[in-house]
Amino acid sequence: MRRAAWIIAIALMTSSAWSSERGCITPELAVKHVNKDVCLMAHVYDVIELADGTRFLDLCSPLTTDAECRFTVVSLKSDRNDVGDLEQYRGLDIQLRGTIRPFNARTEMVLSRERQFHGGSEKFHPNPALLKGYSAEDHNTAFADRAASSSRHSSSFSQRH
Q1: What is the CA radius of gyration of the chain?
Q2: To the nearest 5 percent, what fractions of the chain are helix, strand and coil?
Q3: pLDDT in tens, 93-142
Q4: Cα angle at 48 between 44 and 54, to 5 degrees?
Q5: pTM greater than 0.85
Q6: Which of the ends of the chain has fewer CB neighbours closer than 10 A, N or C?
Q7: 3-state secondary structure labels for all residues of the chain
Q8: 19-119, superfamily in CATH?
Q9: Do residues 116 and 97 lie in contact, with contact meaning Cβ atoms separated by under 8 Å?
């Protein structure tokens, strides 16, 4: 019994040393890294797909209730071609890079590219609110820049010498 406890303790120390060595965090620590780009190390217990095509990597043990599970990885239907088949990760330990985001009372990471499994970044999704009224054909900018508009106020960058 004592020997088993030592083996478990050594395994936990080794895995935590390996994850910190690689700069990865566990899902339990995700809440402390909100809005940060991190490496996540986790076990995929299940892959869930909703009717609308949104997919989730369930990183919580089957013994953990939904209320206790505070982190998930979500992949949107629009990113399916860039992410690929997620079923291949079921039952595996993974490393994933991305930004931890708050979502309701939980945290999540968006999986938008397969290369996030290899340390690559997420896909850039432009903010639709900034693109409202934008048309490249009209030669307009995507947002109103008051500094670029003509006014009687001068800027230190536009003073004539």
Answers
A1: 22
A2: 30, 25, 50
A3: 999 999 999 988 889 999 999 999 988 777 666 666 666 666 666 666 65
A4: 120
A5: no
A6: C
A7: CHHHHHHHHHHHHHHHHHHHHCCEECHHHHHHHECCEEEEEEECCEEEECCCCCEEEECCCCCCCCCCCCEEEEECHHHHHHHCCCHHHCCCEEEEEEEEEEECCEEEEECCCHHHHHCCCCCCCCCCCCCCCCCHHHCCCCCCCCCCCCCCCCCCCCCCC
A8: Nucleic acid-binding proteins (2.40.50.140)
A9: yes
**Which amino acid does the sequence have at 156?**
S
What is the rounded CA–CA span in Å between residue 44 and residue 56? 10
Amino acid (one-letter) located at 38: V
